[in-house]
Amino acid sequence: MRVSVYCASSTKVSASYKREAYELGRILSEEKVACNYGGGSVGLMGELAQAMLDFGGSITGIIPQFMVDQGWDNPKVETVVVNTMHERKQRMVKDADAAIAMPGGIGTFEELLEVITWKQLGLFLKPIVILNVDNYYGPMLAMLEKAVDEQFMRREHLELVTVVSSAAEVIPAIRKAAEWSRDEALSKAAL
User: Fold this and answer.
1) Is the Cα torsion angle 158, 164, 165, 167 positive or negative in sign?
2) Which residues fall within 8 angstroms of residue 100, CB to CB, at 6 or more apart?
3) Regarding beta strands 128-131 and 162-164, do their DSSP bridges make them parallel or antiparallel, or are they unpaired?
4) What is the rounded average pLDDT for all residues in the chain?
5) What is the pTM of this model?
6) What is the model's pLDDT at position 190?
7) What DSSP character marks residue 152?
8) Strand arrangement of the beta sheet that strand 34-37 belongs to
9) CA–CA dist 157, 121 (Å, integer)
10) Contact status, residue 4 vs residue 37, Cβ threshold 8 Å
11) What SS3 state is found at 59?
12) Contacts of 186 (CB under 8 A, 6+ apart)
């Protein structure tokens, strides 16, 4: 199994987020689950990568050349350097069996919402898990509920993601995720 993990590179975040990123890396390694991630060396990205390395896991950083030029890449991990952010996002999920979003900023939000959109449209049919550490995604999840209430999306679209609160719940959530077929996605894409 291979997963794609979206998470932050900020070094100023709460220790609880960093601990959970490290724990996710440990669990993925012990479960022999390979990981694609954004290729950074600090913040949640750095903690995830370090745990994967500490516990003998397989992790691949996928990062655009301009970020490498800024020194944002992690020299300790296997790295795939791409030309654009669009190429990065496509490559992140190309061989992934699931996508996982940890807390992050605008980039993480954008990656998460894009992969949810891809699933809604039948372009990515694998499980998507939001690791909602300390209820970080509570406001976003409330916004999705509001979108349903206001009829901007169907209630079934809330089932495109599974929300968990700890790293220990991620692998079981992936294994229990409901199937989502391309035909089902296309039939439910519009209201």
Assistant:
1) negative
2) 3, 4, 5, 6, 24, 128, 129, 130, 131, 170
3) parallel
4) 94
5) 0.94
6) 57
7) S
8) 78-82, 59-64, 34-37, 2-6, 98-101, 128-131, 162-164
9) 11
10) yes
11) strand
12) 121, 122
